[in-house]
Amino acid sequence: MAVNRMLSKNTLKFIKSLHQKKFRKQEGAFFVEGTKIVTELLQSDFEITHLLFTSKFGDIHSSLIKRHKDIAYEVSVATLESLGEFKTNETVLAVAKTKPNNPILPSADEWIIALDDVRDPGNLGTIIRIADWYGIQKLVLSLESADYYNPKVLHASMGSFTRVSVYYTELLPFLQDLKRPVYGAFLDGKSIYQSSPDKAGVILMGNESNGISQGLNKAVTDRITIPRFGHAESLNVAVATAIICDNIKRQS
Amino acid sequence: MAVNRMLSKNTLKFIKSLHQKKFRKQEGAFFVEGTKIVTELLQSDFEITHLLFTSKFGDIHSSLIKRHKDIAYEVSVATLESLGEFKTNETVLAVAKTKPNNPILPSADEWIIALDDVRDPGNLGTIIRIADWYGIQKLVLSLESADYYNPKVLHASMGSFTRVSVYYTELLPFLQDLKRPVYGAFLDGKSIYQSSPDKAGVILMGNESNGISQGLNKAVTDRITIPRFGHAESLNVAVATAIICDNIKRQS
Could you give the ipTM of this predicted complex? Predict the structure, then answer.
């Protein structure tokens, strides 16, 4: 490839700093790794500032690199692996700007998902992928939830993060102002098999250990439950989100 | 607590070796950590050989320790954390014997799950928890699947591994001999919303990257699919397993 520009030490330091939430906030930037997710990022409306690729990746995707030559930098596999989260990365890493935390306004016929302190990045990423599968394009997250731009979140979302909007806010005033049905997932609610769901509303999921916080109870209009046939005490929050989305979308 | 026996260096070495599949096989043993999962193990029919606990855990659970005094060893937090997988563990770790790889024979009205090379321990553990939630007690795993006794599998299962039986075997002859409906999950099968499922059978899920292997196609009687409403290319295998279990169990 013809791209021979060098990355400055400062740029390398800047990319490494993006492992930490504090610096992602401060710099308004994040990174993703691997061919699939970088390709999806390139097709999205995110503004990409750096595209770091190996000579092997450049050989295979030469027209892609040409199209982005102003931001493309050929680097060694060792450099790529020193920058990212992946143990091995022989392909590509991209840096992009985060989006502003704009309020979400669901349309009249739209389901959205609200998460009350879902803290595990893998869970949040998986939920983003589930939302995207079920055509749910908006997520509202409590302020203590995992960071959307955490590389583990973006990786678990498998590129779906480019198609879902997110808004971090205090959930109680948000849900109260919204004036929509709020389906809260509890272990002792009404069976999701028995209710015929509304045409639009909010699916509210709670924290991995503590569920939906007490203070949010008054915003919940429908306490729902996934029927259990065996003995497990609970389901993983991402798995439960998927089953609820499936039951609501199936009937809508 | 009154238990003052010392653990020999050899025993400590033995427990550490159980991080590796090779030694778990060789020794016929595995370990789990943390109060919840160890408590579930103690209530199961697994044969426990060592119970390592901190003085703090011993103070809270003194009658439990008394009941198991022949296998109980008080250790420091540092020792516990040097042995296990958890970064922090101020409570307990148990060593138990693995069960023999006995063939599974489902009863006439029973659903089982078969996994074709599901390799991620977190996915396998989550699927065990899902099986337990939906009252599915038997799992058949291809020989290349993740190891059931991997600490990451057991941890993700949240104790459900004590209530589910597992059998590792070549899937093709197993499924062909079984003579039951085999529902294989594909991206282009028949909608799970449209079929009214059989009363019993096999839910077959494929590898994280490659799906169900070509060679197993002839064992599949029903190609099924989870309807998609949005744009994600696929769902995580554990999430897909849960949605299929939910649809089958809801209608049965």
Answer: 0.93
